[in-house]
Amino acid sequence: MSGHGEAQPMISAKSGPLSGVAAVPGDKSISHRALIFGAMAVGETKITGLLEGQDVIDTAKAMQAFGATVTRHGEGAWSVHGVGVGGFSEPADVIDCGNSGTGVRLIMGTVATTPISATFTGDASLRKRPMGRVTDPLSLFGTQAYGRKGGRLPMTVVGAANPVPVRYALPVASAQVKSAILLAGLNAPGETVVIEREPTRDHSERMLLGFGAELNVEQTHEGHVITLLGRPELRPQTVAVPRDPSSAAFPTCAALIVEGSDIRVPGVSQNLTRNGLYLTLVEMGALIEFENPRTEGGEPVADLRVRFSPDMKGIEVPEERAPSMIDEYPILSVVAAFATGKTVMRGVKELRVKESDRIDAMARGLEACGVTIEEEEDVLIVHGMGAGGMPGGATCATHLDHRIAMSFLIAGMASKKEISVDDGSPIVTSFPIFEGLMNGLGASIRRG
Ligand SMILES: O=C(O)C1=C[C@@H](OP(=O)(O)O)[C@@H](O)[C@H](O)C1
Ligand SMILES: C=C(OP(=O)(O)O)C(=O)O
């Protein structure tokens, strides 16, 4: 992992036409949840297609530290012997969640209503990210949290010995906060209610139902009202993790901007809480065909055929779409640079509290590559230069952020001059086979 002071490998990318099949690894959000819910079930959960990225590995290690038995049987094939809701034991050491906001926030939820204490930390990126958004609602259960100023890691969470159920309306659209409350609600007697005004990824709700919890989702004037009955016995499951649409975004967008490309991307989620990027690309004039729609691992998926799209136009991305494409704005801003006209992204200030300030990272990097950008606290506007129009020729800073690193490497595959990134090491957090997969399609990603 990066961020501990050692020199980081600079990586650069260029590309010929891309062709072939881009089979991306398992979904990161679903992988974290399969391990965590597996650890809270009684008995053995079997997982296939688990993402073996560093973020998920760190969650697997954490589940072991809390007393679950996590075993790897082969590539993507894992099992978790769970200890039951409320059955976590106190870890003997600090829990290091590395680069993962999802890992640390969801695990804090599980600890919140268990009578144990745990101290959490992470890498330099995670230690900058706000945890108050999770510990504030968790305090309503009776949980205490002691962290650094501004609610930063390292932080000790003291679980409530006698938790009470909670009713909480999310002030930000965040699946991590929603999931932390639901995980805490599992070990609180009675009904815990979370209300979200805008729908966010619903993997926790789907998985809770699969593991046998009593959960109800109602659409009211307040938004989605999610009611969970506490203290269920979770039944172990067999979880087939579908491919990650956030990873699929990278080869998809590369094929759209690299001249002569024609690739297939199998099994891309069509879950309405995850597919915002793909809707947006189609509206821009991207040549994407959605074939063979079906259900895989409980998620609606389709196979994509993606071709070089020289006639894409900038659009105004509907603000309410943001939660369904929140991790895809960096790569969308790259595609926008290869469209004609302006692409306007509003309601995106959540990007400022991800692994890096993603608005700032993309704005500065794209400017260095010759693209005109307008930026406000909550808005990013990219002035497109058309197919093949981006000059490139810069080294972009990645700030310990995998999505920033991959976005600029993809930009470099279609820019006039090569683009480098200062540190490619964060890519292993979510997409460990990125380099090999892209090179297999015809790109040339080189180190040093
Ligand atoms: O719940 C999840 O698995 C995730 C939720 C999103 O974060 P927020 O909840 O902060 O929006 C997303 O950015 C992250 O990559 C994964
Ligand atoms: C924001 C992300 O992840 P996390 O919040 O889990 O670190 C991401 O993967 O883009």
TrEMBL record:
The Enolpyruvate transferase domain extends over 14-436
Where is phosphoenolpyruvate annotated to bind?
A: 28, 101, 129, 176, 358, 403
This one is known as 3-phosphoshikimate 1-carboxyvinyltransferase
Species assigned in the record? Pseudogemmobacter lacusdianii
UniProt key word Transmembrane: no
Q: What protein family is recorded?
A: Belongs to the EPSP synthase family.
Superkingdom assignment: Bacteria
Q: What is the lineage of its organism?
A: Bacteria, Pseudomonadati, Pseudomonadota, Alphaproteobacteria, Rhodobacterales
For this protein, the Enzyme Commission number is: 2.5.1.19
Q: Give the quaternary structure.
A: Monomer.
What subcellular locations does the record give?
Cytoplasm
Q: Does the keyword Amino-acid biosynthesis apply?
A: yes
Per UniProt, which keywords does this protein have? Amino-acid biosynthesis, Aromatic amino acid biosynthesis, Cytoplasm, Transferase
Which HAMAP family does UniProt cross-reference here?
Answer: EPSP_synth (MF_00210)
Q: What sort of enzyme, by top EC class, is this? A: transferase
**Binding positions (3-phosphoshikimate):** 28-29, 33, 174, 176, 327, 354
Q: In which pathway does it act?
A: Metabolic intermediate biosynthesis; chorismate biosynthesis; chorismate from D-erythrose 4-phosphate and phosphoenolpyruvate: step 6/7
- InterPro entries assigned: Enolpyruvate_Tfrase_dom, Enolpyruvate_Tfrase_sf, EPSP_synthase, EPSP_synthase_CS, RNA3'P_cycl/enolpyr_Trfase_a/b
